[in-house]
Every structure is written in structure tokens, then in C-alpha cells.
Specification:
Belongs to the KAE1 / TsaD family. The strands form two sheets. A five-stranded mixed beta sheet has the order 3-2-1-4-5, sandwiched between helices. Strands 8-7-6-9-10 form a five-stranded mixed beta sheet, sandwiched between helices. The protein has 344 residues and is α/β, with parallel strands linked by helices. A hairpin with a 5-residue loop joins strand 2 and strand 3. The chain folds into two domains: 136 residues, ATPase, nucleotide binding domain (Nucleotidyltransferase, domain 5, 2-Layer Sandwich), CATH 3.30.420.40; 172 residues, Nucleotidyltransferase, domain 5 (2-Layer Sandwich), CATH 3.30.420.40. Helix 2 packs parallel to helix 3, helix 4 crosses helix 12 and helix 7 packs across helix 9. It contains twelve helices and ten strands. Bound molecules: 5'-O-[(R)-(carboxyoxy)(hydroxy)phosphoryl]adenosine and zinc ion (ZN). The site of zinc ion (ZN) has 5 residues, from helix 4.
């Protein structure tokens, strides 16, 4: 056997991603290219992703992004040995652009096609940065669309949901709170910056679903968002100036506290010794700091891919594709559908 080149295509939301990895005989995966085009600016004025705009943007960005990835890798399309693509979950129209493109490339090249789960990709990507993943780990996936605790087995092939948000995703809460505070979209980075200048104990915001009768591993962020809105309204009505850094720091502390407490508790309960935190919100400075502290106390190994790999990209799909290829799994048929509601 020689090394195999795996192409990964991602289009489940607002990022068009094409990644290329090299799968070595011994199972190691090496990142060769990671090209991403984002339509985030086109959604900014709507305060969230508009599906129709995302689909159209994928259609125009896909071929140029593929070209960029090939240039970055120094390879030709004919060097590709397998094509992996996000089959779901995600926005239907957006997924279809990636799936149709992947089918075209795979059939033109006469190489196997693998439809893979986007969430598994968010975990498998860490192998590109920190080496092979253990067979069993816990993943805290926190992005604009997801806030989930997942038991991951087989490097992202078998995923069991342990808990999830019952309302807003963590990233969504960041985006909504940014809107309340007149900060730009997406809200995570500006709130993270402001929070560094504020006092996390200035305002006591609620920790959702942490009561004794609440679901142990589920999250809720909508009450927190409402609490921030109410606080701002009350202060403004009373003619008091609000401290944006204090509001950001206190909000951020509430999010990081709940996410890390529940993740560490689940890891202990399930006897899992590795926690992977991924998704756009994993870039949050306070979340990774608190997770590092609490994991160290609990004897859990923490793995957080670098921010570029945490957000949606094609490299994560190529990484999971490489793993699936290695297991000699049956390729997906060329009439494979996009599967927006793909279960984890
Ligand atoms: O994974 P991602 O790029 O896209 C999906 O939602 O799938 O995640 C985007 C989300 C946005 O809601 C954004 O506000 C949030 O990740 N985000 C952050 C930070 N950077 C991005 N949230 C908190 N702190 C950050 N530093
Ligand atoms: Zn994602």
C-alpha cells in the first residue's frame, strides 16, 4: 500500500470548504490543504445565516475553492484517491451543492465517494493537529448551530448524543447578545474581546438547567440571552450607563461555566478520559481557559483544535473520510442524497 490522498468537501452552512489530506499506511493523517470561502458577510445584515444566500454562495465558490486547495497542496486532481463530503446535518440546499460537486469529482476520477457526518468531522479534525484520537472520547461541540455533548467512538464514526441545547445554540446566544449590545455579527469574537476588559462577576446571570431536577447534560441559553436583554433594558430605562465589557464578561462566564461543568461531569460519569472541544465557540478564550483548568483537576485530557480547524472547513471532512477509507467501509452510492436531518 502507498499513501492515499483524500479530498474533503464541506457545504453544510455558510462555509464552502475543500480540504486535502494524506493518509499514510500507518493511519497517520497529514493536512495538505485547507481552502475555505465564507458567505458570512452576506448574512451579516440579517443577523444569521440565510439558507438561499448560502446555497447560491456555495455554487459560485465551490470550483474556485477546489482550485485553491489543489494549488495549496501542489497536487493535481488526478492524484486524489477518494472523495469525502458532508452528507448532513445542515441546510438542505447548501448540502446539495457539496454533495453534487463531490459526486461529479468522484465519478469523473473513478474513485470512491464517502458521505460523512459533519459532527463527526468536527471531532476527527483534531487528529490533524494532535495525532491519532482515542477510540472513545467525549466531544463538546459548540457552534452557531450546535451545542451538544457527544460520546464519540471510532474517531467520529459512531456518535451518541448525551445532551444538547433545548433552545439556542451557544454561538447563537453569542450572536443574539452581540445584537443586543450593538456589537457586530458574528458576535463571538467581539464579545470575547470586550469580555477581556470586563469583570466576570459584575452581573450575576443565570446558569441554565443547573438545578437538581434539570437534565444533567442538556443546555439552555435562551434564558441567559433574555436576562442580558432585561438587564440592558432596565439599566437604560433607569438612565444608567451600562458597561459593555462587564456585560460581556459576565455573560461569557455564565456560558463557559455551564459548558465546562456539564462536559467534565459527563466525562467522569461515562468514564471517558479525553474531551474534545470543537465548533466555532471553541475559539472562545474563557471557554478553553476554564476547560483546561477543570479538566486538569478531573484528570481529563483536553484536546482543542486550533481555531481555524474548529470552524467549518473541508479538512475536517477529509480527515474523517481518511479514517472511514482506512476501515474499508463500503463507499456511498452515486445516488446518495443530501441528508439535512442526519441523526448523530
Ligand atoms: O462552527 P462555526 O464557524 O459555524 C457554525 O455555526 O457551524 O461557528 C460560528 C459561531 C458563531 O455563532 C460565532 O459567534 C461563534 O461561533 N464564535 C465564537 C467565537 N468565535 C466564533 N463564540 C465565542 N467566542 C469566540 N471567540
Ligand atoms: Zn460545524
Amino acid at each position: 500500500m502507498t499513501d492515499r490522498i483524500v479530498l474533503g468537501i464541506e457545504s453544510s452552512c455558510d462555509e464552502t470548504g475543500v480540504g486535502i489530506v494524506r493518509l499514510a499506511d500507518d493511519g497517520r493523517v497529514e493536512l495538505l490543504a485547507d481552502a475555505v470561502a465564507s458567505s458570512v458577510d452576506e448574512h451579516a445584515r440579517f443577523g444569521g445565516v440565510v439558507p438561499e444566500i448560502a446555497s447560491r454562495a456555495h455554487l459560485t465558490a465551490m470550483a474556485p475553492t477546489m482550485q485553491r486547495a489543489l494549488e495549496e497542496s501542489g497536487l493535481a486532481l488526478s492524484d486524489v484517491d477518494a472523495v469525502a463530503v458532508t452528507a448532513g446535518p445542515g441546510l438542505a440546499g447548501a448540502l446539495m451543492v457539496g454533495v453534487a460537486s463531490a459526486k461529479a469529482y468522484a465519478s469523473a476520477l473513478d474513485v470512491p465517494l464517502y458521505g460523512v457526518n459533519h459532527l463527526g468531522g468536527h471531532v476527527a479534525v483534531d487528529a490533524l493537529e494532535h495525532g491519532p484520537l482515542p477510540e472513545r472520547c467525549l466531544a463538546l461541540l459548540v457552534s452557531g448551530g450546535h451545542s451538544q455533548l457527544l460520546l464519540v467512538e471510532g474517531v467520529g464514526e459512531r456518535i451518541t448524543e448525551i445532551g444538547s441545547t433545548i433552545d439556542d445554540a451557544a454561538g447563537e446566544a453569542y450572536d443574539k447578545v452581540a445584537r443586543i449590545l450593538d456589537l457586530p455579527y458574528p458576535g463571538g469574537p467581539p464579545i470575547d474581546e470586550q469580555a477581556k476588559l470586563g469583570n466576570p462577576e459584575a452581573i450575576s446571570f443565570p446558569r441554565g438547567l443547573t438545578g437538581p431536577r434539570d437534565a444533567k447534560y442538556d443546555f439552555s441559553f435562551s434564558g441567559l440571552k433574555t436576562a442580558v436583554a432585561r438587564y440592558v433594558e432596565t439599566e437604560q430605562r433607569a438612565g444608567r450607563e451600562i458597561s459593555v465589557p462587564d456585560v460581556c464578561a459576565s455573560f461569557q462566564e455564565a456560558v463557559a461555566d455551564v459548558l465546562t461543568a456539564k462536559a467534565v461531569r459527563a466525562a467522569a460519569d461515562l468514564e471517558v478520559d479525553t474531551l474534545v472541544i470543537s465548533g466555532g465557540v471553541a475559539a472562545n478564550s474563557r471557554l478553553s481557559e476554564l476547560a483546561r483548568q477543570r479538566c486538569a483537576e478531573a484528570g481529563i485530557t483536553l484536546r482543542v483544535p486550533r481555531p481555524r480547524l474548529c470552524t467549518d472547513n473541508g479538512a475536517m471532512i477529509a480527515a474523517l473520510g481518511a479514517h472511514v477509507l482506512r476501515t474499508d467501509a463500503k463507499p456511498s452510492p452515486l445516488d446518495m442524497p443530501a441528508n439535512p436531518g442526519l441523526p448523530v
